[in-house]
Amino acid sequence: DTGVSQDPRHKITKRGQNVTFRCDPISEHNRLYWYRQTLGQGPEFLTYFQNEAQLEKSRLLSDRFSAERPKGSFSTLEIQRTEQGDSAMYLCASSIQGGNEKLFFGSGTQLSVL
Amino acid sequence: AQKITQTQPGMFVQEKEAVTLDCTYDTSDPSYGLFWYKQPSSGEMIFLIYQGSYDQQNATEGRYSLNFQKARKSANLVISASQLGDSAMYFCAIGGGSGTASKLTFGTGTRLQVTL
After folding, report:
1. What would the pLDDT profile of A22-45 be if each residue is shown by its tens digit?
2. A55:B100 CB<8 A
3. What is the DSSP letter of A73?
4. What is the pLDDT of residues A46-78, one digit of tens each?
5. Is A91 helix (H, G, I), strand (E, B) or coil?
6. Which residues of A touch B93 (CB under 8 A)?
7. Cβ B101–A40 below 8 Å, yes or no?
8. Do A107 and B106 touch (CB under 8 A)?
9. Is the N-terminal amide bond of A70 cis, ω within 30° of 0?
């Protein structure tokens, strides 16, 4: 069990650029979540996948955000035309269906939009 | 909608002492789960303890215990015998009950500082 892995750890970009983050969940976990955390706040839910299907999206997820999990394993989160308000920590988590839905989180990707 | 309130932005505790971190919640779901996570400066969210709404007994995990008072809608975390490594942000969260997808709603957190 290598835990949830996220790449990159840090990303600095200029406003208007596109960025993509990757998440590798724990191998036997079929559910994968994306959260966003801004300074001084708790994480906020963005979206989640069960296997390759994206089952729920928060209204926080504007049209500029898109997430995929093509083979039900790793996931990518892309932000197009980044804005300064997108600066945040993007956290990925995974869990196994059933039971108590304990989420295992990665260390996150810190995005800074200049 | 589910909501978590953590009213203590910061707490101090001396090493080896016990500390209670407060959490109140609001939900209209009859079945739900309550979670506590620890977030050290490295940023990773570390699961600590879980309490199901229908669990009869308070959850315990090593030095962590959850003081669950359903009628008061509170789920306070008790850390016994504090250690320097316990210094971190602590988040309370609520999600769906057992077997459902856990779209967790988090509180704003409590920063715990353990002193010598």
Report:
1. 999 999 899 999 999 999 899 999
2. no
3. S
4. 999 999 999 888 888 889 999 999 988 999 999
5. strand
6. 42
7. no
8. no
9. no
> What is the rounded distance in angstroms from the CA atom of residue A19 to the CA atom of residue A112?
11
Tokens of A103: 């989420």
Q: Is B64 on the interface with A (CB under 8 A)?
A: no
Rounded CA separation B38/B111 (Å): 10
Q: Which residue has the tokens 């260390």?
A: A107
Residues A7, A77: contact at Cβ < 8 Å? no
For residue B25, give how far its alpha carbon lies from the nearest alpha carbon of chain A (Å): 14
DSSP B18-71: -EEE--EEE---SSEEEEEEEE-TT---EEEEEEETT-SS--EETTEEEEEETT
Contact A56 B101 (CB under 8 A): yes
